[in-house]
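Progress note, sequence design subtask.
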């Protein structure tokens, strides 16, 4: 089943949101209309209702945000295939609701990634980047302690920690992942030399070659260029290539270390 995200940022009171939460209902609201036919709405409402109908037909794993009443958690559950949309009048508005099955509250303290990678400026949409996490939560399984389990954002963080552990980088100059164009990590080492690093999960050799080419644009006297990628990929002699497998294995090699604990927490273990 698809993984989807729904944001409950609509015209209603906290009391109505508490009702929806307690009944394990997700809801959308576009126009005060009891119809569940998409064509009866404006373009935004039509689009949202078509998506909801699609997920009701096929089934979906859901991450539901109720931020105004639950800022530290979200609701995770399932839309069973063949579910129906029900129009409910709650207070002054009519909402289109669907019941979640096997729903549970999930705290961001444990699954912080689910807060960090939520889609923006949308009511209901696919959420493939969260699929493995939502599935593990619903199935009460641990996410495997494997490199492939890490989200790209988390991979950038562990590569930064590796650079610090190996004393290649001492201080950041900009936040991780939001730095210069085509650069994921930008900082200085203990001697004040600038360090530029790019990080990728990709195994596409053409894509990697292009990323390395862009990284090399930052080459100048007194700079260090580092590319983190899969060990199977071709290297470039002008750029230091560190495999992400080396990074991951180094950080989890000591089960009593803070690095091991860090990776475990990232994966909600």
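Output:
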């Amino acid at each position: 089943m698809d993984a989807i995200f729904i944001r409950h940022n609509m015209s209603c009171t906290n009391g109505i949101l508490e009702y929806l939460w307690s009944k394990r209902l997700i809801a959308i609201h576009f126009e005060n209309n009891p119809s569940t036919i998409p064509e009866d709405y404006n373009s935004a409402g039509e689009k949202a209702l078509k998506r909801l109908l699609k997920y009701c037909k096929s089934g979906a794993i859901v991450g539901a945000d109720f931020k105004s009443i639950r800022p530290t958690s979200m609701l995770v559950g399932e839309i069973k295939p063949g579910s129906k949309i029900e129009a409910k009048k709650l207070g002054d508005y009519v909402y289109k609701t669907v019941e979640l099955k096997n729903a549970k509250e999930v705290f961001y303290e444990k699954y912080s990634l689910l807060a960090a990678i939520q889609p923006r400026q949308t009511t209901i949409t696919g959420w493939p980047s969260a699929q493995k996490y939502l599935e593990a939560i619903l199935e009460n399984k641990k996410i495997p302690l494997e490199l492939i389990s890490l989200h790209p954002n988390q991979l950038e963080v562990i590569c930064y920690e590796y650079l610090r552990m190996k004393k290649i980088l001492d201080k950041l100059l900009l936040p991780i992942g939001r730095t210069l164009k085509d650069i994921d990590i930008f900082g200085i080492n203990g001697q004040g030399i600038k360090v530029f690093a790019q990080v990728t999960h990709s195994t596409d050799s053409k894509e990697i070659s292009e990323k390395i080419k862009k990284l090399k644009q930052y080459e100048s006297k007194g700079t260090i260029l580092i590319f983190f990628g899969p060990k199977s990929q071709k290297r470039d002699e002008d750029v230091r290539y560190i495999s992400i497998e080396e990074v991951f294995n180094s950080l989890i090699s000591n089960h009593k270390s803070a690095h091991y604990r860090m990776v475990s927490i990232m994966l909600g273990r």
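Residues 148-266 form a domain with the Trna Endonuclease; Chain: A, domain 1 fold (CATH 3.40.1350.10). Work on this subtask will continue into the next period as scheduled.
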